[in-house]
Amino acid sequence: MPRAERAADKATLESVETASRDELVAIQTRRLGKTLQYVYENVPFYKARFDQHHVRPEDFSELTDLANFPSTTKQHLRDAYPFGMLAVPREELVRVHASSGTTGKPTVVGYTTNDLDVWSAVMQRSIRAAGGRPTDLIHNAYGYGLFTGGLGLHDGAQRMGCTVVPVSGGMTERQVTLIQDFGAQLISATPSYMLAIADEFDRQGVDPKGTRLEVGLFGAEPWTEGMRQEIEERFDIHAVNIYGLSEIIGPGVAAECVETKDGLTVWEDHFYPEIVDPDSMQPVPDGIQGELLFTTITKTGMPLIRYRTRDLTTLLPPTARSMRRIDRIAGRTDDMMIIRGVNVFPSQIEEQILKVDGLSPHYMLELTRAGQLDALKVIVEARGDAAADATRAAAAAALSERIKSVIGISSEVEVTVPDGIERSMGKAVRLRDLR
Ligand code: DLL
After folding, report:
1. Are residues 275 and 383 in the same domain?
2. Helix spans in 219-357 (H)
3. How many distinct structural domains can be found in the chain?
4. CATH number, residue 427
5. Which of 243, 249, 307, 312 to mutate to test the pocket of ligand 1 (most atoms within 8 A of CB)?
6. Nearest partner of 70 among 57, 81, 82, judged by Cα
7. Taking the C-alpha atoms of 304, 309, 310 and 316 in order, what is their torsion angle to the nearest 10 degrees?
């Protein structure tokens, strides 16, 4: 356990964070009903789509009725590029963000003053859940710009009353200097970038445990419990998970509570979650894994109904707050590899890497096709003290064996010397598809 004692001050929680289930359901039902009416009247796309599916806003009277409404996909947003999904004239937006869009056009999202207010409120809640306090100084290493990470954390931390250092990603050497000189207690970055910062501390011969950091808010990419342990040990901090997606609002859709670290509490009074079977689109009960959908129930600029996140997870009962939690994201439907009939997510490989002595969490997966069959190559970096040829060969054999026995697939493993894998400043790219 990290040395710092951190827990949200219960007296500062919003009343809805401790509301009863009935109260929460009443709020959700009222807000959902209003949202369905609002999009039907203000977004031509939804009017057409509801009509096509023969549903009207009036058909909604309780939460389970939502399953009768059609879903929204990323393709719908692309087709409406850039402003076709808005419920207000473009002039009423005060901000736009966009997701990177590795292929084709980015996905654009628009925010009204109301939406920025909702966003900073849920981000403030998330920072408090992670153990942040108004007196903290936060080193924000998420990228600023069209990506929602930088400005999302920024606005929430500022609303909370923290001192924000808007450092953004990159120039890792300087990150190390500023963390030490300014004495940040909180840090926010992608988990992969946090590891790059840890390596830079080592390179400079500075002990990462010696900073004043106590809590980090990590997300924007899948990561594992093994990775959490690695970050917590190297920095002696609490590593807390934060989730979100730009289409829904950005970071702050769900966040982990530092006192439990048992999955991410969904801020269900703003974002209504459902889990469905991604093939049949049928709802699955809480506790069963499936694709996560969200309906925004307080946004006015670009509300979305049953948006398909492509993230796979499970809805879990409430613990530290009144709202339900989601489990750590297992993977994205689009990142799933099928190796000789076995479904595998990159995070499953990461889990095994972190169990082998001498291997670092810097890795890359390559998919190739040999004849009819897909083949997986895992390229992973050795730790500094395991760089010798024989040590690396032994680690490669150990990993390959683990992947075979635990996941059930054959793979080729190459263990590179330390620093052999390129670092990312933001979301790590783990998968290279060469098929
Ligand atoms: O990544 C928002 C964000 C910024 C979240 C900073 C957390 C911290 P997008 O760029 O639209 O938005 O990417 C959203 O990233 O659908 C997930 O697949 C993935 N993702 C986000 N947070 C997590 C997480 C931001 N904690 C996509 N664990 C989502 C796993 C995550 N995956």
Report:
1. no
2. 225-235, 346-353
3. 2
4. 3.30.300.30
5. 243
6. 57
7. -120
Domain C-terminal end among 303, 333, 363: 333
CATH number at residue 309: 3.40.50.12780
Does 352 share its domain with 238?
no
Read off φ and ψ for residue 274, nearest 5 degrees: -140, 155
For CA atoms 78, 80, 81, 83, the dihedral sign is negative
Query: What is the pLDDT tens value at each position of the chain, 435 positions in all?
Result: 777 899 988 899 999 999 999 999 999 999 999 999 999 999 999 999 999 999 999 999 999 999 999 999 999 999 999 999 999 999 999 999 998 765 678 899 999 999 999 999 999 999 999 999 999 999 999 999 999 999 999 999 999 999 999 999 999 999 999 999 999 999 999 999 999 999 999 999 999 999 999 999 999 999 999 999 999 999 999 999 999 999 999 999 999 999 999 999 999 999 999 999 999 999 999 999 999 999 999 999 999 999 999 999 999 999 999 999 999 999 999 888 888 889 999 999 999 999 999 999 999 999 998 888 889 999 999 999 999 999 999 999 999 999 999 999 999 999 999 999 999 899 999 999 898
292 and 227 within one domain: yes
Q: Which atom of ligand 1 has the smallest separation from the CA of 309?
A: 16
CA distance 161 to 129: 15
By the 8 A CB rule, do 324 and 315 touch? yes
Whether the full predicted model's pTM is greater than 0.90, yes or no, is: yes
* Residue 44 shares a structural domain with residue 133: yes
H or E stretch at 379: strand 373-382
Are residue 353 and residue 242 in the same domain, yes or no? Answer: no
On whether both 346 and 300 belong to a single domain, the answer is no
Of 281, 308, 333, which closes a domain? 333
Pocket flag, ligand 1, residue 160 (CB < 6 Å): no
Residue with the smallest CA separation from ligand 1 atom 21 is 220
Residue among 221, 302, 310, 328 to mutate when testing ligand 1 (max atoms within 8 A of CB):
221
Indicate whether 241 and 257 sit together in one domain.
Answer: yes
User: What are the CA-CA distances from residue 73 to residues 100, 227, 273, 304, 305 (Å)?
Assistant: 16, 31, 15, 10, 10
Q: Report the alpha-carbon distance of residue 276 to residue 285 in Å, rounded.
A: 8
Judgement on whether residues 324 and 355 belong to the same structural domain of the protein: no
Residue 57 contacts by C-beta under 8 Å, 6 or more apart in sequence?
33, 36, 37, 40, 50
Q: Which domain holds residue 371?
A: 337-433
